[in-house]
Amino acid sequence: MIKGFVFDMDGLLFDSERIVQRSWNAAGSELGYEGIGEQIYNTLGFNRARRAVYFEEIYGDDFPVEAFQERAARHFVQIVDLEGMSMKEGAREVLKFAKEKGLAVGLATSSSEGYARGNLQRAGIESYFDGLISGNMVGRSKPDPEIYLKACAAIGVAPAEAIAFEDAAAGILSASKAGLRTVMVPDLVQPAEEILEKVWMLKPSLTEALEELKKIL
């Protein structure tokens, strides 16, 4: 019996990954690393610390991680302030459905807690969530299962009784290893065959995923 939903955030609830990519390109250009935004395709689901390691692996130990992250964060805020950040199609509806069904709702995001809560508050959806685990609350980033195990514990639901909603491969692997069923709604990258083997339900939008879930739950 399903007792809870656990959601990723960036690229799943919010159309934020493209803004991240633009902010990386702007920050990289200022620091002499043109086109660094393309690296987002290889780091989806990584938390801040894991991405820092990745950049040093790709660009060398002298890559200015802190300066890059600070500039990227500033550009991200500037873009959001000017253009806003929309929720993904069906996101609000699937959250409402979960609450109507009496399900516990958790968030398992690789982003920081402050950033995550700010997004939820601005969108007016924070009250839907019973628990939140962010990237700075875990020692190991997705695809490690730690974040989903902690998210399930935070909402008082066993992993086998929960469904994870993800857009990226790292998140699917994380949730699958933790023992959750997985719903995948791809955003920037389509899943490889080995990822599809871990996916319980694959849909192009949360709207279509919700329609299928209504038939099951």
User: What is the makeup of the main sheet?
Assistant: 6 strands, parallel
According to DSSP, the number of beta strands is 6
The helix-strand sequence is EHHHHHEHEHEHEHEH
Q: State the CATH superfamily name of the largest domain.
A: HAD superfamily/HAD-like
The SS-based structural class is: alpha/beta
Q: Can you name the CATH architecture of the largest domain?
A: 3-Layer(aba) Sandwich
Query: Averaged pLDDT, please?
Result: 96
**Basic shape:** globular
- How much is the radius of gyration in Å? 17 Å
Separation of termini? 9 Å
Indicate the proportion of strand residues: 5-15%
Count the domains: 2
> What is the level 1 CATH name of the largest domain?
Alpha Beta
Helical stretch tally? 10
Q: Uncertain spans, ≥5 residues at pLDDT below 50?
A: none
CATH fold naming of the largest domain: Rossmann fold
Roughly how much helix do the residues carry, as a percent range?
Answer: 40-55%
* Sheet with most strands: strand arrangement: 3-2-1-4-5-6
Structure description:
The radius of gyration is 17 Å and the shape is globular. It folds into two domains: 4-15 and 86-215, HAD superfamily/HAD-like (Rossmann fold, 3-Layer(aba) Sandwich), CATH 3.40.50; 16-83. It contains ten helices and six strands, in the order βαααααβαβαβαβαβα. It is α/β, with parallel strands linked by helices and 217 residues long. Helix content is 49%, strand content 11%. It has helices spanning 17-31, 40-43, 48-59, 65-83, 91-100, 113-123, 146-155, 169-178, 193-196, 206-216; strands at 4-7, 104-108, 131-133, 162-166, 181-184, 201-202. Strands 3-2-1-4-5-6 form a six-stranded parallel β-sheet.
